[in-house]
Amino acid sequence: MRNKSASSSQYLTTFSGIIFFFFLGHSALAQKMSDIELLLGHKMLNQEEPALPTDSVKAHIGGDVYIYDTIKGVKTVNDYLRVLYVGGVYPNHKISVIVKGKKVNKELGIFQDGDVSHFSGVAIMYEGKPAIVITQFVQLGTRIQI
Length: 146
Hints:
2 domains; 30% strand; elongated
């Protein structure tokens, strides 16, 4: 009888140990998942890339820029070309946003004078002022850092 009792005790101890390590490992895994989710959640709460002031775009000609400012005027040249005057009323605007392409101009119809938006692209000079050329609709949105 004593053997059965000792065997049952060993079995119970071993089984309890396995259960303990299972829950310990599961808890550690769950904690790691929460840490990762927490990190990603925190990153997502504060992910917007800092925008360049429109006054500084001229110093970045030829480079990729990202601005956030108010549309103060819209000039539609044709179905394929539209110019947005940003940061001031024409001719005193700070930067021009040149939107090229029929599809992107069709989608751009949602923008009006007074709207505040994000613009990104390569900075160029256009009619003596800095400009950004937009050829894809994704250049008209918030940039995020991942």
